[in-house]
Amino acid sequence: MTSSPAIRLTGLRKSFGAVEAVAGVDLEIADGEFFSMLGPSGSGKTTVLRLIAGFELPTGGTVELGGRDVTRLAPFERDVNTVFQDYALFPHLSVLENVEYGLKVRKVPRRERRERAEQALASVRLEGFGKRRPAAMSGGQRQRVALARALVNRPKVLLLDEPLGALDLKLRERMQVELKAIQREVGITFVFVTHDQDEALTMSDRVAVFNDGRIVQVGSPEEVYERPASSFVAGFVGTSNVFTDEVAKALFRREGTFSVRPEKVDISVDGVTNGVVAEVIYAGPVTRYVVDLDAGARAVVVEQNRILRTGLRGQRVRLSWHDEHVIEIPQGKDSADAA
Predict the structure, then answer these.
(1) What is the pLDDT of residues 111-168, one digit of tens each?
(2) Which parts of the chain are coiled coil (predicted)?
(3) Which residues pair with 25 in a beta bridge?
């Protein structure tokens, strides 16, 4: 007998007045999965997270957790915990007291809650930090305290609402690795909301891309990046060259809409040329070339700086690619639910 998914959303809708924030979402998230909801501001991803948590009630549809319909239950009646971007730690309490707080509210005996809080701190690699106050800790450490406080209740599902958004770039990258490692160790379902494509691709088992209140693609990071289901996904998840109509016909000898990722394009000054380099942007490990194509479009090429080229701006060049890197994009899917 197949076990129920950790989360099942069926026909989920949420309206705020005349605005339909979530417009019919169907989704299943497996037990123990690290699942990310990715999309721009206003795409509906955070509202879906709040519907799962119980902070909002849906206009229509159902929310199931572990096969149990929780659509109309209060947040405290659902076996989930949430970590927010601002962490919401109590500044007057020690780290250990912050982690214990939820257990104290549930009247867990003092000795048990102390042991569980210390175990939770150990699980996020903060052994020995229990006596400190949040103000004496770094942003990354406070983020892990908030994570320990959520984990101490041993929820079946942990919801994370852009928890790394307040961190600087290097710390955010380090915490991405930490979070994924912690999720593997504790083995519970993580649902991570972000607008950062790199975060979603780095940490997730699967990603749902949101746009206009709908899911437009669900898949592994590799599937979503390498095989975008729409022009929106191609443009939002990373950067892509999207060619349509007569331009596509001139470049690929096929009609339709096609996507080629910038790093999949080769640039050379040999052979028959098909464009002029308009801009050269040096970015450390890579250089970006913006090329005006003779076919009437602009393309971006990303090249690793193994050998640094100079003097290409204004030169005629030849762009080329392998056929398997030219992805045909189905039309009419940008607003359709592709889940």
Answers:
(1) 999 999 998 888 888 888 999 999 888 888 888 898 888 888 888 999 998 887 777 7
(2) none
(3) 12
8 A C-beta contact, residue 192 and residue 34:
yes
> What count of residues does the chain have?
339
Q: Quick: pLDDT tens for 221-278.
A: 999 999 999 999 999 998 899 999 899 999 999 999 999 999 999 999 988 999 999 9
**Total-model pTM:** 0.87
Distance CA 82, CA 75 (A): 10
Delimit the CATH 3.40.50.300 region(s) of the chain. 7-231
Please determine, looking at this structure, whether the domain spanning 7-231 carries the CATH number 3.40.50.300: yes
The CA distances from residue 4 to 10, 11, 30, 306, in Å, are 14, 18, 8, 49
Residue type, 112: E
**What architecture is the 235-328 domain classified under in CATH?**
Beta Barrel (2.40)
